[in-house]
Amino acid sequence: MTGRTNMFPRFWPNAARSNRIRTLWLVGLIAVLAVLLTLSITIGTRNVDWADIIAAIGGAQDTIGQAAVALRIPRTFLALLAGAALGLAGAIMQGVTRNPLADPGILGVNMGASLAVVIGVAWFGMSSPKAYIWTGIAGAGCAAIFVYTIGSSGRGGATPLKLALAGAATSVAFASMVIAIVLPRGDIAGGIQSWQIGGVGGATYERIAPVLPFLAVGFAISLLSARKLNSLALGEELAAGLGEHVATARAIASLGAILLCGTTTAVCGPIGFLGLVVPHLCRTLIGVDHRWLLPFSALGGAGLLLGADILGRVIARPGEIDVGIVTALIGAPFFIWIVRRQRVREL
Prior knowledge:
transmembrane helix, 15 helices, transmembrane, transmembrane transporter activity, ABC transporter involved in vitamin B12 uptake, BtuC, mainly alpha
């Protein structure tokens, strides 16, 4: 009893201090997110005074300024949801694969959802929002299974490098297939090409409402997988020794990520690199405990996508740049930095 009692003074203060630091980072992240939400509503191609902004938040649309703000509110809400979904999905994928390069875009999941949606539109005349969502989820799931199967083949199993290469090759192949399907169809080419860039412009409450149940289920499954991901981080053998069913834990966590990726891609188009950048930054701030990392990644993803959307509106005024382009400009150098930072053996 004496030895056990002496352990608590040694370790408990460190744990308490660590949790206090994480709580402070959480408060700071929420404050930054609140600022970005305000900026997203107030900044656009048209300058709007505060009286119109407040009136528009209250539901008024009597002036051009109020109508402009009314359009920004659902756009901001969609960016918040999509960013949180992609940030959380990236953290889940990195945890499931134990791969520092895992990302819905790099692993081909987003492009799989995109290809499925394009096939549904071009070949089956799909137009229902729920059909888009179900098709996107199915495409994301099939792509994830395909990439993991290819990356697991051969000696050494599913190493991070093999998964990244399999995902990159799959993304290129799926992107080529999308082009091949769309090129002969002039009637849908313009809309598909615009959607393929990835963006949150043109959002409406009617467009957002169908995705809410799917995202809610995806968020719930993903966040409840935190303890399982902590076990998987110890290695398969140790996780199994602790009583964790490794295959089931991976499947459940992956299901949450697939729901988030497929749904987000269906409504916004493929937005890359966000799921790569955000979990790495959050891991630097609060560590590897998924009970903290997953909520932080969701909030960080929401903040980064909102910031990218605001930046796209500011630097191209009176036009705008879609968030898919902005996140690519941010994420591509970050991806190169991660690859250069990791030793070849670790990949």
